[in-house]
Amino acid sequence: MDPRARHPGRTAHAHLLALARSNGLPGRRVAEVIDLVGLHAVAYDRVGGFSLGMGQRLGIAAALLGDPEVLLLDEPVNGLDPEGIRWVRELLRGLAAEGRTVLVSSHLMSEMEDTADHLVVLGRGRLLADVPMAELLGASAAVRVRTPRAPLLAPALRAAGGRVRPEPDGALRVEGLDPAAVGEVAFAAGVPVHELSRVVASLEAAYLALTGDEVEYRAGPTT
């Protein structure tokens, strides 16, 4: 449901009621979705004066009128303030927890990283990935190790199969080995370790590493 597809002279209640009646849905559902999206205070205000964020809430209310088992939303947090974004995140996860499938399209990868359970990546007409979010981020994980004897530890890590590159602060970023393996290599080499931690890539970094090009992605909390 396009949140802009509304008559500016109608109230939010009248807009949703018209949609309900035209789709054979019970009128009582209107009040339910208005409360659900937090528009009860402006339910009888004309939608022509709504802000972008309020329009987004109205669009979500329209999408929920039919109490769908599968919900598809395009940029649902566009125009929302931080509180509104958190509300959408909790709403979507709540709907998914009820057993629904929620599919979200968004360019805000940091928000999707906090919201989505599963990621689908499409590029040039091909399916590039269809994996749980944790699996995708885990595949791009690395280990950060900091030692005063980095020149000695780096070749030992490479000999153990790790891919090593220095970071600006002098620490080493290691891929291909888990933290336990890095610690064992450091111990065997007699190298003191001041920091040893697992670093998980952001969704944006994992996405760019996967695609290497501009593609479209769809993510959402699913069951």
Summary, kept brief:
By secondary structure, the chain is of the alpha+beta class. The chain contains nine helices and nine strands.
In whole angstroms, how far apart are the ends?
A: 22 Å
- Strand residue content: 15-25%
Sequence of secondary-structure elements = HHHEHEHEEHEHEEHEHE
* Helical segment count: 9
Instruction: Estimate percent helicity.
Output: 40-55%
Give the uncertain stretches in residue-range form. 214-218
The strand order across the widest sheet is 1-2-9-3-4
What can be said about the biggest beta sheet? 5 strands, mixed
Number of strands: 9
What is the alpha-carbon Rg in Å?
Answer: 24 Å
- What's the quaternary structure here? single chain
> How many separate domains make up the residues?
3
Coarse shape? elongated
The overall average pLDDT, rounded, is 85
- Derived from helix and strand composition plus strand pairing, the structural class reads alpha+beta
Structure description:
By secondary structure, this protein is of the alpha+beta class. The chain has three domains: 1-67; 74-98 and 106-136 and 206-223, no CATH class; 142-199, Alpha-Beta Plaits (2-Layer Sandwich), CATH 3.30.70. Helix content is 41%, strand content 21%. It has nine helices and nine strands. The strands form two sheets. Strands 1-2-9-3-4 form a five-stranded mixed sheet. It has a four-stranded antiparallel sheet with strand order 6-7-5-8, covered by helices on one side. α1 packs across α2 and α2 packs across α3 (52-64). The radius of gyration is 24 Å and the shape is elongated. The two termini are 22 Å apart.
